[in-house]
Amino acid sequence: MTLALYRDDPYMRDARGTVLAQTSEGGLVLDASIFYPTGGGQPGDAGMLHWDGGQLEIATSVKGDGDQVVLVPAAPGTLPEVGQDLRQSLDWERRYAHMRIHTALHLLSVVLPFPVTGGSIGAEKGRLDFMMEEPIKDRDAVEAALNDLIGRDLPVTEEWITDEELDSNPGLIKTMSVAPPRGSGKVRLVRIGAGEDQIDLQPCGGTHVARTGEIGPLKLGKLEKKGRANRRVNITFG
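RE: above sequence
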């Protein structure tokens, strides 16, 4: 089992860790990880591992067995031995960009309240696919509404509910292509806003900024038709 430090504090850039295992593919499993593993449209984190006598560049992170996070080296090399204590450090600029884009996509799903059929998060841009037959008629209005929500500097928080509570509230699920993160008996919800100012609440296992104001100005990118009833909406940093 890997303790998910990235979930406890997405702003943690450095942390200690101990090697629990080396995988047959040349990856590493630590007892605690600040590296987010690929999932939910969000790429796995990259960074470095440092220990006495060595260091290793990590290209990405993926999910392993159970709750394990597997760190994938950028190139073959000497791996730290099982039991080795080390320091892990993120490629923070890349991670923080993912956090900003991820939260921005949640806001996009508020501005365009249609079922989400797909999505992708990058360090410079992101996109959501919506089940909507008609094209966006006023892209400037959509862009302005998105930036208005960002400018309100709303808090982004989390809470946990049981699988049964989620089953009794199916309206919380916006994504049709990505199932909410289950398996532990509880599901993490990400909330944007609070009280009367709450604008969004949905299951999500990814990393987010603490306030929408951190996202910064956004621009609507290419608008694409993907099938009879699907539209792809791209966003980029302004």
